Each structure stands twice: as C-alpha cells, then as structure tokens.
Amino acid sequence: MTQSKIHSPSADDPIEAAMMVRCCELAAQAAGHTAPNPLVGAVIAQAGQIVGEGYHPRAGEPHAEIFALRAAGSRASGATLYVNLEPCNHYGQTPPCSEAVIRAGVRRVVIGMADPNPKASGGIEKLRAAGIEVSVGIEGDRCRQLNEAFIHRVTHHRPFGILKYAMTLDGKIATTTGHSAWVSGPESRQQVHRLRSQCDAVIVGGNTVRQDNPNLTSHGVGDRNPLRIVMSRQLNLPTTANLWNTAIAPTLVMTQTGADPSVLAALQEQGVEVVSFEALTPTVAMTALYQRGLLSVLWECGGTLAAEAIAAGTVQKVWAFIAPKLIGGTTAPSPLGDLGLRHMNEARLLNRVQMTAVGEDFLLQGYL
C-alpha cells in the first residue's frame, strides 16, 4: 500500500480558493433539501478548467462527487477534484464516494474540511492510500460555516437552532396592545422568508398563533416551505388558524399528555399532526426533531419560549433585525423573557457578530 504525498493548502492560491468557492455555491443550491445530510458541491478541473461539477440535491440521491464525475466522464482521469467536504467512505443510502473517485483515476483531491461524522469519515485516508494527492483546508472557514448545522447535528445530536426576531430600536417586538405588523421593513421580511426556505422547521408558541395568526411559509421567496411547529402544553389554541391549512405546508403541534382533547381532535381533522409528550420542553422538542432527521430549526417565537430555548441550549445562533423605530411602553413585549440573570456579568455574550444593513433596518447575526 503506497502513501501519497500530503499537499499543504496555500491560502494565497487564488485558483484553489475560487474552485472551493464554486463548490460552496453549488452546495448552497440545495439548502433546506438535504437533511440529515450535509450540503456538498464538487468541481472537477483539468489544467485549471472546469470539466465537470455537481451537488448533492437531497438525501437518498447521489452525492456531489458522483454528479461531477458523471459530467466529466473520461476527463476525470488525471484531473483534480475539488469538494467542500471529505468524500464519504461508508455504505449508507449510496455507495462510498471515495471508491468512485479512485476508480475514475482522479490524480488529486482538494477538500475544504474533514467530515465530522465518524460513520462517514475515512475518505481522506483511503484516497491517500490509493496514491491520490490530497489537500485539506482550502477555504476551511467558509466550508464550516456552510455546514454549521450539519456539524452541530453530528456533534451534539440535536438540530442547529436559530432564534430570529425583529425589534424596534428601544427593544420592543410589539406595541402595548400586542400589535406587531410590521416591526421590520419589506427587505427584512424577504430575508426571513428566504431563511425559512433554508431551514427544516420553524417553531412558535401558542401565543404567537393566538396573537399573530402567522403563515410561517417562505412566501414564494424560496422553493420550499419548512415544517411548521407549534409548541403548546395545554392546547389552548384556536381551532381556526392559517397554520392549520396543511395544503400549503405541513404543521406539527407538540403538546403534553392530557391536553384539551377537543382541540386535539379538531386539529387532527384538518390534517395537523399532533404529538404528545409527558413534559414538553425545548430540549424534548429538539430531541424529537433530531430523531426525525432535521438539521436546522428556526425559532420565531415570543419572548417566553425564546428564553426557555436559550436557557436549554437549543439556540446556537441569533438573527436580530433592528428597525429604526421607537414605540416605548413599559409593558410592550421584548424579544426575550426572563433568563433568571441578576448581574450584568451573567449576560449571555454573542460572538462572531456581524451587522449588515437590510433596507432601512439592520441585521445583527451572532453565535451563542
């Protein structure tokens, strides 16, 4: 068994970086469709010219490397394969990609990041053992951010949680009467619709259903709608609501054993799935969604449930839209309920914070 040369990636190589950026662009086309699989794109190049490319469209279909190899045909022999995630080395719903790469006669493989899933890893070693030159780490930060939900899922056995809210400059998500349409502008709302189309599910509490009667769809901005989830321990929900129209998107209601049986029956008659738990918490909900194979979950709930989700560690990222508006009101609701903190040094700090202008609003993104 021969050991191939280990190539050290250079951050200064513009061609290498451009090819990996293209892999990420291809992979992102399937955002929202691949759960529980990662987003993967692949490019095959001869002498710096792309001769084949592809991406993984959804679980159960061929991986990105296979589509790229098919597109390249005989031109894959002696070529360089670029892929944002280590080629898999196991038999799942599809055969190992590492074997297909070896059979195609690829000379070199450039990988953005190693696969964090121990069941699928080993592709790098297999390729090198076959005499293929392997580079790992080109545009690594970009590749990790692209698959942050997948990395979190396989590392923590939970979906990746994103808390999204829109607030005024004085920190209110609605007026004292509960009116909240609209805190943010149309450009911000379009961003949210796109985000929904890329997440596997969106969660709200019962109060959001009662107060806002939302649709929680992508409103045509994306090519899919997420699973819409309502967490309601007592099922004190209206029997008529936009979310119960399951013809446009599926809806799941999570509740507790012993909740209102008449509401349960009314929801089920409208095609709403209802699942009961002995004790419903954000942790229980996310564990159940992990078992369903979900990668990313968007929390669009009110302050009380948002605080529970953060305290339980089920939120990893925050999307906060800040509108240049002042509405005041000592009883006007804020994005976050009580976390039980009494001193400023207990505050939950966001890191890797980014601030961007979206129309007249500002979007702050950060990680907990």
List the helices and strands and how they pair.
Blueprint: E1 6-7, H1 14-28, E2 41-46, E3 49-55, H2 64-72, E4 80-85, H3 97-103, E5 108-113, H4 123-129, E6 133-136, H5 140-146, H6 148-156, E7 160-168, H7 186-198, E8 201-205, H8 206-212, E9 227-231, E10 251-256, H9 261-269, E11 273-277, H10 282-291, E12 296-299, H11 303-311, E13 317-323, E14 351-358, E15 361-367
Parallel strand pairs: 1-6, 4-5, 5-6, 7-12, 7-13, 8-9, 8-12, 9-10, 10-11
Antiparallel strand pairs: 2-3, 2-4, 13-15, 14-15
Helix pairs in contact: 3-4
Describe the structure.
This protein has 368 residues and is an alpha/beta fold. Helix content is 28%, strand content 24%. The protein contains eleven helices and 15 strands. The chain has helices at 14-28, 64-72, 97-103, 123-129, 140-146, 148-156, 186-198, 206-212, 261-269, 282-291, 303-311; strands at residues 6-7, 41-46, 49-55, 80-85, 108-113, 133-136, 160-168, 201-205, 227-231, 251-256, 273-277, 296-299, 317-323, 351-358, 361-367. It has a nine-stranded mixed β-sheet, with helices on both faces. Helix 3 runs parallel beside helix 4 (123-129). The longest helix has 15 residues, at 14-28. The two termini are 45 Å apart.
